[in-house]
Amino acid sequence: MVRGRRYRGAIPEARTKEEAENALTKIRRDIYERKYDRTAKGNGSFVNYVNNTYLPWAKANKRSWSDDVLHARVICEFFAGQTFNDIDRKMVEKFKDQRANTITVRGTSRTPATVNRELEVLSKIFSLAIDDEIIESNPCRKVKKLRMDNQRTRHLSPSEEDRLMAALSGRRSHLKPLVTVAIYTGMRRGELLKLRRSHVDFGLNVINVKQTKTGKDRTVPMDVAVRETLVGLCEGLSDDDFVFVNSRTGVQLTDVKHGFKSACRYAGVLDLNFHDLRHTFGTRLADAGVDIVKIAELMGHQSILTTRRYTHATDEGKRAAIAQLASYRRENCHKFATRKMRLAKQPSASRVFA
């Protein structure tokens, strides 16, 4: 035991009590020296470690490293001038509260999801520093993340889809193929924008979805509308060419947020995000009675619990139960059933005594 912390280990070379005590003394001295050395390392600049160690590691190991660059910039601005030994749980809590209660550059409130992602990056920085034996503990471990309401299930109705498709014309016509494929394949926006000609297999009539959020490739069959759309887009493309490109420049599309929102406003479709097109795909599969396991496979969900959100409003068993309740109410409750209807259902006296 060193300052209340237990260190365990075997000493196979010790044959006597004296040898064991000498070995113990040496190990205790090594522990103290390593602790003091680590304390000295912890006095180094936090910002320098982020820029010189963490960000290169993120670029080499994470697909989302570009997001980490943005989050790290915010983190470094807050913790500028601090060392690892200066940063404790209270300081991390202060960072969380400040980020949650400040307004974004667009004048909107910052979402809990954004703050939580910044906390995740901060926690990973400390975890990496622990692996490098710079510090002994992670002050983020006892900081609770903000609660999020991420169970959004907004989806397009058929009439809304018709209005939206009509709005995707003129200067917004380049978005119509992208929206069509999104609705009828359930692919994420990033998966669509990274789609290359080689990923579309017209022979097998499937799309091979690569670089997914979960890191696992999947295949999605094409229906008639998707196939017709992609045939036109893929004509004349080489295998490495992106399918969805800017119609004016021919460069890969990187975002469609503004054009899509503009089309929704023009069509009178309220409170719809591009990701809701994926929800539309899942909800319609559930409406059609597709097995929940197949829905999960088509959408690339790692957990079936994620897929269950699409069956909450389409479960025919639940609908049938509510229909039976309504029927019972009409036949038995005083407000709906007449006295004659209730008496007709009661057994007669002669049948009772018989």
Detailed description of the structure:
The chain folds into three domains: 46-142, DNA polymerase, domain 1 (Orthogonal Bundle), CATH 1.10.150; 158-311, Orthogonal Bundle (hpI Integrase, Chain A); 317-353, no CATH class. With 354 residues, the chain is mainly alpha-helical. Strand 1 and strand 2 form a beta hairpin. The model is unreliable at 350-354 (pLDDT under 50). It has helices spanning 17-41, 46-61, 65-78, 89-100, 112-131, 158-167, 175-185, 189-193, 224-234, 257-267, 276-287, 292-299, 304-307, 316-332, 339-345, 349-353; strands spanning 200-201, 206-209, 218-221. Helix 4 packs antiparallel against helix 5, helix 6 (158-167) packs across helix 10 and helix 7 (175-185) runs antiparallel to helix 9.
Question: Can you lay out the helices and strands and say which pair or pack?
Answer:
Blueprint: H1 17-41, H2 46-61, H3 65-78, H4 89-100, H5 112-131, H6 158-167, H7 175-185, H8 189-193, E1 200-201, E2 206-209, E3 218-221, H9 224-234, H10 257-267, H11 276-287, H12 292-299, H13 304-307, H14 316-332, H15 339-345, H16 349-353
Antiparallel strand pairs: 1-2, 2-3
